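Pilot study result, target chain (331 residues):
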Amino acid sequence: MSGGLYLIGLAVLTTVVVPVLAAAVAWRRRLLPGWAGSPAWVVDAVLAFAAVVVIGELLGAVGQFRRWPVAAACAMVGGVAFVAARRVRPPAAGEALTTSPSRGRWPAAIAVGTLAVVAAQLSGWTAAAYQRGIIEDDSVGYHLPFAARFIQDGWVTRMHSAVPELPMTFYPATSELLHGVGMLAFHRDVVSPALNLFAAGLVLLAAWAVGRSAGMAPATLVAVAVVVASPLMATTQGGSAQNDTIGLFFFLAAAAVLVTGSGDGGDPGVLVASSAAAGLAFGTKLALIAPAGALLVGMIAVATRGERRGEQNEKGDARGVLRWRHGPRRR
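Predicted structure:
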């Protein structure tokens, strides 16, 4: 691959990612104005992924999952959404997160050390994939062939039979679509070996966000890192197109949003972000259907509690008005 083609691919990928990410940050600030730190960054990533997936699916439904239509659509949608978010007035009652972020040297040292261990465990497999190509069985069996077929014919709605006697044709294909976006930019799978390494970083970010509100961020980070850096995960996810890592991020992101926003019962921003993350998890891997369903129950509970709290506040306001109107007057 020549340097010129690489620069073109990098420019296309930047055109896809930057406007969408900027719009995601702008809308998160409007929907969740009091959020900051790891929970806010998790929401930014979820909204950006959701936008790219929706744009890719809509264009792919009409046979236009191609380089320039996708780049133009992401730039246009991202730009319009960014301007719209800047013009929308944020909620007047937005409050800062009532969290207990871990501070001090030890939590920071634990975070840096954990990130270094996970990066070291996965980066070797990623580097090997760049040297010899991706050779993991499922990656070359159907993950990458599906992504390649998407960009070859421009459709994401047509069924592709990789292994006729197995049901891969009917598997969710969100991760394959993301690999396809990288292939559209470079016309090669340049991004694919590094996608799981990037996703692992997002998993650790979401794990930190899950424990942040309870002051347990280092504990949740280490617990999830043990799984991500385990030999089973490292050997199958590092430098491959497997979808376990990116699916785990979407699931943990939904959990992090619900845990962080549990005190804002029924907040539309919390429900939008958690629903988007759970939907992405559901659309990535069949094994996440049950966990995503459990999160759906949690979303319903949060929304119901918010409605009840709103009704109680309205009743309290009404009683106050009645007391003011009909109560005793002093002269």
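One observation from the pilot: The first helix runs from residue 3 to 31. A full batch analysis is planned for the follow-on phase.
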